[in-house]
Predict the structure.
Amino acid sequence: MAKYTLNDKYDIDELFAYTDTNEERLAALYDKHIVKYRTKTIKSGNVLECEVYPIWDTHTSTSRAKRFRESREVQKNLNKKNAIKNLVRLINTNFTDDDIWGTFTYETKRLPASVEDAQKEMAKFIRRLKYYGDKHGYAPLKYVYVTEFEDDPEKGKKRVHHHIVCNFPDRDVAERLWRNGARRQTRRLQADDDGYEGLTRYILKDPKGAKRYVTSRNLQKPQITIADCKFTRKKVNKIVSGDVDAKSVFESMYKGYALHKTVAKTSDYCTGAYVYVKMIKQQQGGKPRANRRE
């Protein structure tokens, strides 16, 4: 019989965002149709994420998931959540504290008439950064930018600005190359225990327009691996029930990383459990590794 994987049809984290009663939870954990647990590992910069989720030998155990799929009316929220998650990983993978991020706005007389016009202005800015960088021997430009465009005739209000993360090394020059007036503010990136997640959530807080973000084509993708032999059903059940220490389990499995966050949960909509951990790469001495370009 063909095996069914949850990740093919549903967003794992969304599906396991609900919890059963204790009795149902125990029954769900020990469902005989769970043949194994799949482990997805995502490495992006100094951050390692691990998702552990069930694989069944039949559709029977996931029949309740159909109700979840049919009744769900939050696709927009899910799309936004996935956009943030993807961008966090892209930025963690490609940028370090040696790089910069900035906010660029327009003086009133230069305000773009549309999102498309705003993105054309940003494209001109990118070309100027590339030209200057090529002329002065900088590394090829890598960037991510978000355009926020608000035009409300009833309020008589128009606001347009851009947030950019890039590896252009000279903040003063970057600010000078923006030629649309108003605010030009850049800062060095500064990672915390979540990498650049806080920054990413800020710049994507309420994006307007057709695209949530635009990236250069030379960005590296996060390193993703899939394994079906890292966790047994018994070990996952012990992690979810708290019978084993998740910190020791995952730090033994991923040498050189320290556990930062753990989530373990069951669902009203399918059997088994979902385990998520976030880990931070450590340097010698047990301190978080600095986000610097090597």
The radius of gyration is 23 Å. The longest strand covers residues 34-44. DSSP finds nine helices and eleven strands in the chain.
